Amino acid sequence: MTSNPTTPTDTRPALDREHWQQRLDELAAKHQVPGATLAVLRLGPDGDELVEAATGVLNKSTGARATPDSVFQIGSITKVWTATLVMQLVDEGKLDLDAPLVEVLPDLQLGDPEATRQVTMRHLLNHTSGIDGDVFTDTGRGDDVLERYVAALADVAQNHPLGATFSYCNSGFSLAGRVVEVLTGKTWDAALREQLAEPLGLTHTSTLPEEAIRHGVAVGHISPEPGQEQQVAPVWMLPRSLGPAGLVNATARDVAAFARMHLSQGRAADGTAVLSPASTAAMQAHSTDLPDHWSLGDSWGLGWIRFDWQGRRLYGHDGTTFGQNAFLRVLPGPDGTGGIAVALLTNGGQPRDLFNDLYSELFSELAGIRVAEQLEPPAEAPEVELTRFVGTYERSSITTEVFERDGGLVMRVIPTGQVALESGATVEELALHPVEPGVFATRAPESETWMAVVFYTLPGGAEYLHYGVRANPRKA
């Protein structure tokens, strides 16, 4: 995608590449981010403007410099790509979002018989299926990885009743990727390449390490303990079986070009129809609310997260892998045409603090809005009965212990499972600051960004802790 200069009829000030390069340099250093790339895309009646910037290194061990052509892992932004492939199937009449998936996968077996019979693609795309979401089963490197992964879901517990609440679900997107394979006759990797990357002209987008290595590739960085120097993450990527949930590698430019298609009613920059306007709109429309509407977005579409920034509706997604974090926000034009897409890819440090600072500046200048206010502890803490929240909450890959200490609540987050062991993830203790009954604010010791912790009860009486956009059921 090329950057078109503004024309005399375009009254907007041109995007200032040098300014945003300087701000990326300064803010990445402030938040100890080793390397980052940025793409700011603005659509308008007189053409597109694209500004790119890069800072720091791809790998602290080698000192390789980050450039706009550098490839990072975009993590769970991949889910929107998978959702787009699904909606192409809807456009072709091959899939009904509300039909039971067993009509497409007759051998499907989940841990819960009712969910097996009734789960639909809509449940997968809006994270309400109840399938335990962080199941990182490695089923090898062959083209049958998703088939084998889905077969193993028979042994995965149901995290919550089907449709009862929202809980972020990687497992559901691997299942969605398998549906794509069955209905296209291609691997998920081939479908993404042939139906999205190629029509959109994305020259640096891939899903497999042997494809990514053709470019300058970022590695993640983590700190073994808070305050310690960052080191290269011991694992580079998730198992191939998690491909549809998080294995796209791309430049910030390519991520912005993907977003451009969604801003343009499903059309690529050259006019190629990639997705119908109806399916594009359906992905952005409200599908379900979140128990925690402070930490990320307030609601979910079909694949997209939905955000309210000072009354303006945005959509986007974030991604997290081993020491890499990616951010995409898309603001449609007020009249339904044009718009802004901003992609930021990082490889360590405090990336969410970088995101908050940089995106607030960008969107303030370009659209007069800032990142939504985060939930923070009030100046005077409210009186809250603490003992009712004390207990152990457990799901795949994470055990959370909530206990009292020095008159307050503490949340101990314990990573479990093979991926936690391989990645070097450590136990984390976080103080919970009461905001209102059932709602607390917390943040990591070195982070400026607050996150919400919400305790709530489903109609059937089951108790949950919602943190990190995941529902954690309380153990009996």
From TrEMBL:
This is CubicO group peptidase (Beta-lactamase class C family). It comes from Modestobacter roseus. Residues 21-354 form the Beta-lactamase-related domain. Pfam families: Beta-lactamase. InterPro entries: AmpC-like, Beta-lactam-related, Beta-lactam/transpept-like. Coiled coil: none annotated.
